[in-house]
Structure formats: C-alpha cells, structure tokens
C-alpha cells in the first residue's frame, strides 16, 4: 500500500464534449492528478442512476458525470435530462448517509481542456477531503 | 443478444514512441493484462497504428481465435476507426474492438508520475477487457444520401461553396438571412495585397449564383429547424415576409408579367427614411429598399418595422403588382444530404473599449466604415471625409488590435487575423488619394503572414506611413475642432506619443454573430472556447464538424482573410459532395433496442427521445416500445431512464457498462 490513500473515482463522460475536452487537455499536456478512471458513453443521457449507485456500492469514493454545456448537447438535451437525474440520485445518497459531494456533474466542452484538468483536480481534492467512502466497510 | 461464447481477448499496448512508454511501464501493464479473465494474448509494439502494428492484431485474431480486441493507445476519437478496420481484416466483427485511452487521458497528463500513470493504465486495460468480453457483433446501417446540399450564409464563403457544389452537379440551397448575397466582402472597397476592387471580383460570382441552375437561392430566409442526420437532413426554412414578390412568385399567383424587376419606382415614392445598414447608416434608404445597386437577387424588400403602410409603393408598382404589404413569413421543408455553414462574422462592439471613444467622438470610425467611405460606390462617392464636418482628413490614425489580442476581459483574446493587412491597405489608400496626408499606424505586431503580404508591408513603409509600436491608451476630443488627441507609447523608442489627428480608424476585432450561434446550435455543432464554431480536428479536419455531414467554411470557424476563406469553402464543398456522390453512408449501429420480455409498456422512454424515434405498439396483446432505427442517433437517453432495464443500447449496454464499473472498482485479476 502506498503511504497516502488513493481515492477511487469513477468518471462517466460523454463522447462529444467532455471526452473530447479531456483529450484536448492531453494534447496540450495539461497535468492533473491520476486518481480518476473514465468510462466513455455517447451522451450523459445514457447514465442510468443504477450506474452511479453500483459504483458507490462497489466502493467508489466519488463519481463524476460530465457532459456538454446546456444548449450544446450533441443529442439536443441528453445532458439536461442527466442533470435532472443527478438531483434525484443526490437525494438518495444523502438518505443512505453518503455525502452528496461525492457525486458531481460538470459541463466541459470539447474546447475546454484546461477546464477538464481543473474539474478533475477539484473533484479529487474534494473526495480526498471527504476521505474513504463509508460504504467500503460493508464490503466483504 | 450476446450468444454465450467464451471470451478470448487479445490486448495490444502501444508505446507511441516515447509518448506513452515515456510515462507508463508498458512491460508491467502487458504482464498484468495476461492475468485478466478472458485474456489469451498480450502484446506490445512501438506504434500499433502502423502497418506492422495492425498486422499483429490481424495475426493474433487468426492464431488465437480471438473474440475481442483491446488496444491500449491513444484516444478512440483518433484511432478507433483504424483498429476497427484491422479487426475486420483479421476476421472478426469490427465492433468487437475496444480502446483503452492511455495517451491523451493518461501518459500526456501524468508525465511526471510514472507509478500513478502505470496504475491508471492497468485499470484502463482491465476496464476495456471487461467491456470487450461482452461486446457483440454489430452491423452498420447503410442509408441513402439525398442528392442535395444546403449552404447557410451567402458571403464569399457560402457563394464559393455553393458554386462548387452546383458545378459538381449537386442541387444546392443557398440560404441567406439578409435580402442580398455578397456578405462582408461586398462592403469592402479594395482587397489586399493585390488591391483588386472587391466588388469587381465578387459580383461575377454573385451573378453566377443567380444564374446557376443548380443553385436554389433563398435570400431573406433563415434556418428554423434541423432534423435528421447525414444523408437525410430535413430542414425547415423560414422565408421572412419580404413584402415583394419575385416574377416567379407573381406568376404562381396568376399575375402575368408581374413581380419585381428591380426598377425602384416604389423606393422613389416611399416617404420613410432610415439608415442603410449596408452603409452603416452613413447613407439613407427607404422602408422599401435594396441595399446597393449590385444586389442579387435584384428584388426590393419592405422593412415592415418602419413601413407605415401608406400604400404609395403599391400604387407606383402599378400593373406589376409585385408588392404585398400583408405578406407573412412562410415556411418550407427541404431535404438535403449534407450541409455547409458559412455564417461569417460581425464586428466586436468596439464602443466597449471606451478609451477609444467610438460612438462618443464622431471622427472615430471602424475599419468597415472606412471601407464604405473610401469606396467609389459608397455614400461619399469614394471621397474620404470626416463624419463631423465633411472635411478631408490630413492626419489619420489607425489603431490595430482594437479589441483583438485583448486579455482585459473586455475584448477578444484572439488575433482577428485580417486587420493588420487591411489597415496597411487603408494607409495605402489614403496616401494614394489624399496628397500630403499623414498615416499613423499604432500596432502591437504587424502580422503579414500570407502570400505577398510581407512585400505589401514593405511597400506601405516605403510609401511613408508612420508605424508606432504601441497600443493607444486614450483618445480625447477637442470639442471645438473635433480633432482627436491620441495618447500612446512608442515602445521601440520608449517614449510617450501624443498626436493630434483628424480621423481615427479602429481595426475592430471580429466575433460570431448571435444568429450564427443559433445556426450552430440547430446543426448540433460545438463551439471553441473563443466562440467560433469548432472544427472536427484543427489540423486534419478543419472543414468538418463532429456532426456527420455538416461542414464549415470561412470566418464562422475562426477569423481568416478572403484567400483562406475561399480555400476553406472549396474544401468544405468538396467534403460535402463526397457522401452525395457516393450515394450512401454507413451509420454507426449504436441503436436502442427493446427487450420486449422486460418492457412494461410504460412509455416513459417515448417522451424522453429527442428524435421521436420511439413509439409504443401493440404486440401479442401487450404494449411494448418499438424503435425506428433510421431516427435513432444512439444517445442512450432512453436506456438511462428505463425503469425496467428493458432497453438494450447497442455497444453501450447496461451489462457492458456495469462490467466496466465492476472491473474498475472490484478488480478482476486472476
């Protein structure tokens, strides 16, 4: 084990905006901490609340969902529908005793590489401050 | 659904020279990959995208009878198509390929953390293997392409693009929001560095547009709605009420020999006087007007906002019966295969840079206003005069980078690219026209990057223009003489400059217009951080966008001068013509499917679908959802909501995504 605790943070990001923005951060060699693992979906509209609950159940310390800006969604309004779901999921998280700051939705466009790096850095910082997910204790 | 077949996965790691291998221990990840469930071969190569690299995939598929491929390399947005082809060549379905991004989202952003980057790469490979184990055979859907194109915006970019498309035999709708085509270029007097008269080189093209049988010209028309996808866009156009009928429209209404012939009798009798937008209100127009004599089409337009409906024009028009003051907006639906956006630019509102006094001081004008004042067909017949008193200026200042390269948060951070050159041209024009005139150019850097541009810069220096390297700090007006006191710093001589000038021309920054942004959103095109439309790739696909079948031409993609605009327009036209000439396109098969045994027929997905691709139908006595594949674009919003988990979102199925999440968080090493 490393001396410092490494949080496990899942990012589910849309192909057209945030994934492209993350790629752009790479092209521009903007450095950020590595404690995040991304899964690509075509649109944040695809993000089933189940995915997020599954991640927390599996012991994720934080989940980031990132899509296009409102009005810029490649599929018109998938990001808007995803954002509405986030309120619901956050309230569920609170009810089961998880700090809802562990779940974040952001909007990063394909041209915002620096913003992506900033978002990731901030999410990692927030999760590190919150410490390991209390749900980990319930795992086998 | 996935037939039960034991997964046999091949993992291939790319060094990308030192791009990846410099920050990630490839050998360690390769060995690790072998421990993952289903992985039967784990290999690495310097450049997986090279022919030998792809060869490794092809050989391994045959040798190990693989059912899935994982390549850990760059972004799937870059090389997914490459490796799909390799998978296909190897003999498996190309959609059984999955990519782990260990370059853009790993080695390049964790360059100094080899341990962290290597651990992340292992996770990325494990996640990809989990998905690859569940991938299914998918088949792209081939759809026919409508043999027609649309070009939005009829400046020089839109004109060139539509002429090229039309000459390639493609019926092309050229849509322009103003009453005439020509755009910004038609407002210019001369063009740098050749000093061609702008109208002289543009109007032949404008006339060609009017004459070309393949161009369906739609002026005073806006895009209202865009539906469909590459090959089959259904576009609703709003034809704004023009108040005047063309001869064709008149004939359709049974008025034989009627319709507008551009005679102008109506305008002559119209009592309403407004500022002519084409001349930046430095010349008048009537409420029924044409902007300038060379308009195409040569049809008058009623400005209903200022029209008092006195009816004098209707009387003057007489038997031609061209004018209909009760006309209303009308709508038309067109079908096209591809689209080119060429929406151009507008000037940054330079009055926001209050220190230069635009709008406060009459003798501070913009570069475009200068173009009209120096143009022989302009409001002064080509005699450059001061707006305050009509006198010929003897000392003229040009402020470059006015609002461009401005990091104060007020202006634009980018270079507007053509202002240096047109300011040089302006200096040349006054030196040529006004004996004894003095031209002062206040500049940060002169960017004369194009062909024969640097030579033109030397020529203007030789002609005696004064170059002062420094930004103008402040401009004050002498209330009596209306002369301008210009304060600046000459950064080369390191001393303050304080000059009294007769006229100041601001080389204003350019920005996308709000209408252009509406068009951008209608076509689902992203925007860059600076507000311009975002190209698919800044270097390798500068005409394309991330919306298949939609292309960009001209300044809407970023500031550029006329040669670059025309070149990009030709490129966009060529790109837009390819799917039309091929006649069909293949769509990625990311369609939603209904698992009818799980579907409760609640219909929530039907309302969520942004494309109306879903419907409830009656099947074997129960209601189930049905997908129209041609309408489904694969966003998966339905699948993200279905309470019964009844939607099978191809290539992004719930089991696949859950497997990825589990692989990340629960591990899976053997």
Which pair of chains forms the biggest interface, and how many residues does each contribute?
A-B, 54 and 56 residues
Structural class of chain A: alpha/beta
Q: Total helix count of chain B? A: 17
Distance between the termini of chain B: 27 Å
In the sheet with the most strands of chain B, the strands line up as 10-7-6-18-29
What percentage of residues of chain B falls in helices of 4 or more residues?
Answer: 25-40%
List the total number of helices of chain A. Answer: 4
Strand order of the largest sheet of chain A: 2-1-3-4
Look at the structure and give the mean pLDDT of chain A. 93
Number of domains of chain A: 1
Radius of gyration of chain A: 15 Å
Order of helices and strands of chain A: EHEHEHEH
Major β-sheet of chain B, in short? Answer: 5 strands, parallel
> Helix share of residues of chain A?
25-40%
Q: Choose one word for the global shape of chain B.
A: globular
CATH topology descriptor of the domain at 347-511 in chain B: FAD/NAD(P)-binding domain
The radius of gyration over CA of chain B amounts to 31 Å
Number of strands of chain A: 4
Based on the structure, what is the oligomeric state of the protein chains? heterodimer
**What fraction of the residues of chain A are assigned to beta strands by DSSP?**
15-25%
């Amino acid at each position: 084990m490393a001396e410092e605790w490494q949080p496990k943070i899942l990012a589910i990001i849309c192909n057209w905006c945030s994934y492209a923005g993350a790629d752009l951060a790479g092209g521009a060699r903007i450095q950020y901490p590595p404690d995040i693992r991304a899964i690509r979906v075509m649109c944040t509209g695809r993000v089933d609340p189940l995915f997020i609950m599954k991640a927390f159940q599996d012991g994720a310390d934080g989940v980031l969902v990132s899509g296009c800006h409102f009005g810029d969604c490649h599929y018109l309004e998938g990001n808007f529908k995803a954002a509405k779901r986030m309120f619901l999921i956050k309230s569920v998280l609170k009810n089961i005793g998880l700090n809802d700051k562990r779940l974040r939705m952001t909007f990063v466009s394909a041209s915002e590489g620096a913003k992506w790096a900033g978002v990731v850095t901030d999410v990692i910082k927030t999760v590190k401050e919150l410490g390991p997910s209390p749900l980990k204790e319930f795992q086998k | 659904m996935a037939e039960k077949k034991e997964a046999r996965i091949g993992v291939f790691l790319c060094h990308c020279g030192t791009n990846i291998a410099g920050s990630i221990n490839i050998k360690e990840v390769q060995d690790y990959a072998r421990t993952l469930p289903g992985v039967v071969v784990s290999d690495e190569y310097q450049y997986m995208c090279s022919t030998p690299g792809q060869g490794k995939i092809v050989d391994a598929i045959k040798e190990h009878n693989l059912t899935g491929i994982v390549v850990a390399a760059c972004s799937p947005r870059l090389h997914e198509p490459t490796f799909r082809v390799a998978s296909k060549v190897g003999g498996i379905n190309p959609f059984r390929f999955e990519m782990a991004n260990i370059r853009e989202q790993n080695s390049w952003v964790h360059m100094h953390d080899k341990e962290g980057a290597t651990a992340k790469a292992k996770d990325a490979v494990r996640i990809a293997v989990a998905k690859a184990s569940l991938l299914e055979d998918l088949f792209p859907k081939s759809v026919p392409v409508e043999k027609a194109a649309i070009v939005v915006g009829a400046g020089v970019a839109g004109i060139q693009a539509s002429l090229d498309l039309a000459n390639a035999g493609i019926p092309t709708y050229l849509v322009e929001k103003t009453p005439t085509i020509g755009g910004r270029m038609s407002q210019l007097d001369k063009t740098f560095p050749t000093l061609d008269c702008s109208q002289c080189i543009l109007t032949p093209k404008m006339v060609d547009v009017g004459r070309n049988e393949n161009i369906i010209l739609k002026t005073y028309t806006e895009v209202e709605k865009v539906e469909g996808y590459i090959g089959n866009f259904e576009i609703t156009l709003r034809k704004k009420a023009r108040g005047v009928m063309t001869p064709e429209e008149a004939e359709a209404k049974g008025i034989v020999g009627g319709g507008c012939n551009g005679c102008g009798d109506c305008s002559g009798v119209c009592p309403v006087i407004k500022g002519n937008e084409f001349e930046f209100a430095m010349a008048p127009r009537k409420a029924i007007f044409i902007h300038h004599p060379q308009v195409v089409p040569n049809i008058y337009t009623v400005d209903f906002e200022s029209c008092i409906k006195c009816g004098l024009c209707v009387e003057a028009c007489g038997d031609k019966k061209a004018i209909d003051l009760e006309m209303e907006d009308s709508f038309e639906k067109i079908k096209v295969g591809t689209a080119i956006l060429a929406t151009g630019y507008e000037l940054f509102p330079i009055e926001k840079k209050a220190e230069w006094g635009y709008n406060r001081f009459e003798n501070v004008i913009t570069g475009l206003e200068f173009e009209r004042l120096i143009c022989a067909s302009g409001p002064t017949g080509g005699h450059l005069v001061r707006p305050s008193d009509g006198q010929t200026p003897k000392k003229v200042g040009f402020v470059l980078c006015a609002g461009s390269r401005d990091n104060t948060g007020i202006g634009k951070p980018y270079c507007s690219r053509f202002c240096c050159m047109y300011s040089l041209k302006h200096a040349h024009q006054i030196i040529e026209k006004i004996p004894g005139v003095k031209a002062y150019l206040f500049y940060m850097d002169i960017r004369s990057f194009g062909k024969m541009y640097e030579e033109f810069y030397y020529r203007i220096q030789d002609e005696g223009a004064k170059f002062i390297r420094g930004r103008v700090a402040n401009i004050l007006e002498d209330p009596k003489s209306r002369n301008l006191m210009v304060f600046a710093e000459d950064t080369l001589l390191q001393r303050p400059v304080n000059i009294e000038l007769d006229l100041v021309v601001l080389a204003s920054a350019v920005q996308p217009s709000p209408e252009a942004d509406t068009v951008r959103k209608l076509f689902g095109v992203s925007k860059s951080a600076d507000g311009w439309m975002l190209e698919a790739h800044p270097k390798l696909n500068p005409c394309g966008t991330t919306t298949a079948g939609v292309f960009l031409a001209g300044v809407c993609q970023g500031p550029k001068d006329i040669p670059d605009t025309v070149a990009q327009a030709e490129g966009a036209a060529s790109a837009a013509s390819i799917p039309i000439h091929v006649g069909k396109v293949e769509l990625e098969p990311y369609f939603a499917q209904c698992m009818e045994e799980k579907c409760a027929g609640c219909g929530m997905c039907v309302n969520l679908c942004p494309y109306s691709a879903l419907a409830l139908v009656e099947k074997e006595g129960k209601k189930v959802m049905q997908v129209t594949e041609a309408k489904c674009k694969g966003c998966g919003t339905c699948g993200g909501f279905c309470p019964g988990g009844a939607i099978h979102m191809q290539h992004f199925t719930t089991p696949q995504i859950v497997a990825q999440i589990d692989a990340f968080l629960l591990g899976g090493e053997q």
